[in-house]
From TrEMBL:
It comes from Nocardia stercoris. The chain crosses the membrane at residues 40-61, 73-92, 104-123, 135-156, 162-184, 205-230, 236-255, 276-304, 348-379. SUPFAM superfamilies: MFS general substrate transporter. GO terms for cellular component: plasma membrane. It is found in: Cell membrane. This is MFS transporter. PROSITE patterns: MFS. GO terms for molecular function: transmembrane transporter activity.
């Protein structure tokens, strides 16, 4: 194994931890609320608290990593994730699961953007596409395995075993990262005013890839949440719909490194690829309700996975290439906030339209929204080319 890859593997594993931690618990919360006779509102709050902590804190920790060093924030976040999981096991009170999830989410808000910043700093710009593609693939693996392995752990030993397993996982990755990931120097910074920050975060070089990443994450969330609904209407059982979701996640995981490698070799332009990926994801969501039968659901899973897998490494590589190196943590934290908003906004849009009309209307509405984002990314790219000419 090459030295650069050995340094990156713990960072990829950190991405796996945040994805696996989020989905392994979320997938089993319905059983928790059912056994405790809690309301659907309680379930919704428990599902939202992890992402809510990330939305609030990712920009904060991203900026902190620029100030004190991304490695310190990475290790601190992994340690905090271990502590939050361990405390829940030691206390032994299942009613505190919401507090434990908030602690895990706050910890993930620290080490997730720090890991992205470290990937950008440790790898030359010519390898950013492949590096971020691999990072996204590991996160996709966490999304895929989380519900399955989380359910197995809960079935064998309840929530204490699941949280104990997460504590061990995060602790092992923290030790691994402390050994294998080198420190990167904190770069000197020019003075930045609030106006300077606002100008940078509203410029096309930031908004374009962030909007694309948010759209891709929204498409992924819609696929994970609503393809089982559409599949159930086609007569598929829980096992089959679970396999469809796994197919979506696996496709995204397989596409990301390949898209990143094509980008690094000059075969794929960032903005062209992001536009194409968003249009693919939109087509996949539409196919779920337009193409009849089980074939529509399976086709949708593959196309959505391919679209999101195309956008993600290109978006992060573009951000890394256009961000000031001394502000890379701040950039990644703010971009991760955009992804979290897409993660919440996509299912909310489909759910709202499905409530007032039908699931078909909701899915088509999401497809149209993604197509609009793709158009804006492409139009911005055209304006950029015109200015350079």
């Amino acid at each position: 194994m090459s030295a650069p890859r050995a340094r990156l593997l713990p960072l990829y594993a950190a991405g796996f931890v945040t994805a696996f931690g989020a989905h392994s618990i979320a997938a089993s919360l319905a059983g928790y609320t059912g056994s405790k006779h809690e309301s659907l509102l309680t379930l919704g709050l428990l599902l939202a608290v992890y992402d809510g902590a990330e939305v609030l804190l990712k920009p904060v920790f991203g900026a902190l990593s620029d100030r004190v060093g991304a490695r310190s924030v990475l290790l601190g976040g992994l340690a905090a994730f271990t502590v939050a999981s361990t405390v829940f096991v030691l206390v032994g009170d299942p009613s505190l699961v919401g507090f434990a999830r908030f602690g895990q989410g706050a910890a993930a808000a620290a080490f997730s953007p720090a890991a992205g910043a470290m990937v950008a700093r440790l790898i030359p710009a010519t390898g950013h596409g492949r590096a971020f593609g691999s990072y996204g693939a590991w996160k996709g693996l966490g999304y895929t395995l989380g519900p399955v392995l989380g359910g197995v752990l809960v079935a064998l030993g309840g929530y204490p075993l699941l949280f104990g397993g997460l504590a061990v996982l995060a602790g092992v990755v923290a030790v691994w990262a402390s050994i294998a990931v080198p420190a990167v120097e904190v770069l000197p910074k020019t003075r930045q005013t609030v106006l300077d920050l606002a100008r940078r975060l509203t410029g096309g070089s930031f908004l374009r890839p962030t909007a694309a990443l948010a759209g891709a994450t929204a498409a992924l969330a819609v696929g994970v949440g609503f393809l089982p609904v559409v599949g159930a209407r086609q007569g598929l059982g829980p096992l089959a719909t679970g396999a469809v979701v796994s197919l979506l996640a696996a496709t995204a995981a397989l596409v990301q490194p390949r898209a990143g490698r094509a980008r690094d070799h000059g075969r794929l332009r960032d903005r062209t690829g992001m536009t194409a990926g968003l249009l693919l994801a939109a087509a996949g969501i539409a196919a779920a309700v337009v193409v009849p039968g089980v074939a529509g659901v399976v086709t949708a899973a593959v196309i959505i996975g391919a679209g999101t897998g195309l956008v993600t490494p290109l978006g992060f590589a573009h951000l890394a290439a256009t961000s000031p190196p001394e502000r890379i943590g701040q950039t990644m934290g703010a971009a991760e906030l955009g992804r979290e908003l897409g993660d919440a906004g996509g299912p909310l849009l489909v759910g709202a339209l499905a409530t007032t009309a039908t699931v078909t209307t909701g899915m088509l509405g999401a497809a149209v929204a993604l197509a609009v984002v793709a158009f804006l990314v492409a139009a911005d790219a055209s304006r950029a080319r015109s200015r350079s000419s």
